[in-house]
Amino acid sequence: MELNSIINKIMESDSIAITFHVSPDGDSLGSSLALWAALKKLNKDVKIICNDVIPDVYNFLPGIGNISKDNKLSPGFDLVIVLDCGNKDRICSDIKFDGSCFIINIDHHKSNDNYGDINYVDSTAAAVGEIVYKLIESLNVSLDPDIASNIYTSILTDTGAFRFSNTTADTLRIASELLDKVKFDFSDIYRRIYYSKDIKRIKLYGLVIDSMRLILDGKAVIMTITRDMLKSLETELGDTSDVINIGMEIDSIDTGILIKETEEGLKISLRSKYLFDVSKVASKFGGGGHIRAAGLTLNTTIEEGEKLLTEAFIEELNAGNNKSI
Amino acid sequence: MELNSIINKIMESDSIAITFHVSPDGDSLGSSLALWAALKKLNKDVKIICNDVIPDVYNFLPGIGNISKDNKLSPGFDLVIVLDCGNKDRICSDIKFDGSCFIINIDHHKSNDNYGDINYVDSTAAAVGEIVYKLIESLNVSLDPDIASNIYTSILTDTGAFRFSNTTADTLRIASELLDKVKFDFSDIYRRIYYSKDIKRIKLYGLVIDSMRLILDGKAVIMTITRDMLKSLETELGDTSDVINIGMEIDSIDTGILIKETEEGLKISLRSKYLFDVSKVASKFGGGGHIRAAGLTLNTTIEEGEKLLTEAFIEELNAGNNKSI
């Protein structure tokens, strides 16, 4: 893929808007702020637009205060760059697709539906920050600590700190070049992102650990989040999918089963390390997912749910479906 | 520093022993096994010697079964290479320093006392694995998945998965080159090292979370490990210093205080993110350490200990010593 047409379009545009997907994360924010800072250095009139809530954890990102909720200017931009968004319905701003703005779509989601006038979709990039890094290089804008911190954040968050299998040689090379070319406190970025949990979430970990029950000769662990637990902590906590990782940290465990009691029934998350294809178990109950991560919903009591899931895994064991895949 | 003299000595030696520091860790094991595999490829008669216990978590390392506890051959080696060991008293084997073997000392500890006939000490290397990587390159030995996995492990463990501030551009460049040149499952290495906790340790986390108490307007958290907790889990668990990190994950927290009740009194660990110089507080009680990590011992009850520590931190606050450093 060539960045040239993007470079040319940027160079001929004066006013540029940057936007990204709803529920912004470290990659969409970091890559946008890095590109924003680079375009500023090229004396562009550039604005980041997002109508969604920015998670507090990213308040430390250089430039974050410049993200605008004001959409009124949108038809006036020469160019709109959409980052990290696979689908135009998921864009976090009201940019119109009526031909009034030229749209560049830069993304790494395989499922991207090429909604832009120029589409640059590299699904081998672990983070859009990698693509923006290459773009900034090609624009001949020099890196500075603000740009480096934002790109590093985008890569860190989308690779789970370089541990997910989407991490590539290119990912690590770019991180290496950032550290080589600029002095910035990457260790502090880690701390700000990963050491920033609400104390209620930590307290919930404690309650979930207390609820842990090993099954299948210690190969699997069942964990429970009840409505009473959340009530006792006076919190909803929103997304609690991270909680399952506590069980996965146990050495003997292959499979983690997290049962969350909600008003719409039991929401169940499944994870595995080596043995089970958890998507098979999920599909038995109308759920779905991947080999190593899947989910399903049950309309039963917690006790019945535990029983059904245990039986389903025993069935898999008996069918010999517990081999490494 | 030049690797040439090391290369020459290796090339002229037939039988080579590799050894490292007592209480071996991911870096000493990974770097030794990588060098061992490389020297095998050069048809050297090479042996890794270690009289200490190898932690089970490293059983997955390629070649680990070849580490020998047999020291009898030691005077017979043309060359002994000691890796990752700053001091000859800490070597995990009985290699004699009587001139009967030629000794190469390869290390990254600043405090290394240069006990070798050749000493290669690079304190900018995050892991000895980095130096061994360069050595293997200079020996013109081609990388393979076994060598790559071992070097990656050495780097991963000594940098806390690239998050400690000892990580450099060179560290990330080497990791990038490993991924680029060889196909190996780096994500699985992460899982095997960091998702391998005894369930009793996870249960202890739960008890410690339950014990958490915020002080100093939520700036600090006190956590406790009592003898009763360990008794209820029927475990000693040895080193429990990792437990303090649970408190550090809380967003509002600057300082973590972990009080462990032992037969020799209260062992107290202190950590901070930005505000306090915890070594100052530790030194008030005859302890010591660094700005961000320190420790001390108290011969009081837990309640008295909590009170003394809280007062000491309030004193620091009142003295205005709670600025970022």
Polypeptide structure, described:
The structure is a homodimer of 325-residue chains. Chain A has 325 residues and is an alpha/beta fold. Chain A folds into two domains: 191 residues, Alpha-Beta Complex (inorganic pyrophosphatase (n-terminal core)); 120 residues, Roll (Diaminopimelate Epimerase, Chain A, domain 1), CATH 3.10.310. Chain A contains eleven helices and twelve strands. In chain A, the strands form two sheets. The first copy, chain A, has a six-stranded parallel sheet, covered by helices on one side. In chain A, strands 7-8-9-10-12-11 form a six-stranded mixed sheet, with helices on both faces. In chain A, strand 11 and strand 12 form a beta hairpin. In chain A, helix 3 runs antiparallel to helix 4, helix 4 runs antiparallel to helix 5 and helix 4 packs across helix 6. The radius of gyration of chain A is 22 Å and the shape is elongated. The two termini of chain A are 33 Å apart. At the A-B interface, helix 5, helix 6, helix 7 and helix 9 of A face helix 5, helix 6, helix 7 and helix 9 of B.
* CA-based gyration radius of chain A: 22 Å
Oligomeric state: homodimer
Superfamily at the CATH H level of the largest domain in chain A? inorganic pyrophosphatase (n-terminal core)
Strands across the major sheet of chain A, in which order? Answer: 3-2-1-4-5-6
Give the biggest sheet of chain A. Answer: 6 strands, parallel
Question: End-to-end distance of chain A, in Å?
Answer: 33 Å
